[in-house]
Amino acid sequence: MISDFVRDVGAAGNIWEKRYAEKFGIVLAAATLLARFDIAPWTEARAVTAVTNLYNASRNLTVSVPQATDALLDHVRKAVTGKNVLQICPPQG
Fold first, then answer.
1. Is the model more confident about 27 or about 68?
2. Which residues lie closer than 8 Å to 22 by C-beta, 6 or more apart?
3. If we measure between CA atoms, which residue out of 61, 17, 44 comes closest to residue 9?
4. Are 53 and 22 contacting, i.e. CB atoms less than 8 angstroms apart?
5. 71 alpha carbon, distance to own chain's centre
6. What is the pLDDT of residue 93?
7. DSSP character string of 4-68
């Protein structure tokens, strides 16, 4: 079930993405079992929808390692070409 979730959200290609998605897959497994045994007031389909939506919302707010690397390299390129001042830490304020 966890590996199915990871595959379904398209996170199998990158180890960081996979580990991140696996955590949501664990939550989905628990929510699905709760629904299956009538312990929770939701259906299995609703559990899938809710956890997938939570994963997608969380993923949109999180920067992955490749994204952070690309952003840093972009800063360095601009600094080297004189198009931008390299700021390692953003200004506070």
1. 27
2. 2, 5, 6
3. 17
4. no
5. 17
6. 57
7. HHHHHTT-SSSHHHHHHHHHHHHHHHHHHHHHHTT-SSS-HHHHHHHHHHHHHHHHHHS--HHHH
Residue written as tokens 């601009």?
Answer: 78
Residues 68-88 have pLDDT tens digits of 888 888 888 887 877 655 556
What whole-number distance in Å separates Cα of residue 41 and Cα of residue 49? 14
Specify the pTM. Answer: 0.69
38: left (phi over 0), alpha (psi -120 to 50) or beta: left
- Cα separation, 74 vs 17, in Å, equals 22
Q: Residue 91 carries which DSSP code? A: P
31-60 pLDDT per residue, tens: 999 999 999 999 999 999 999 999 999 988
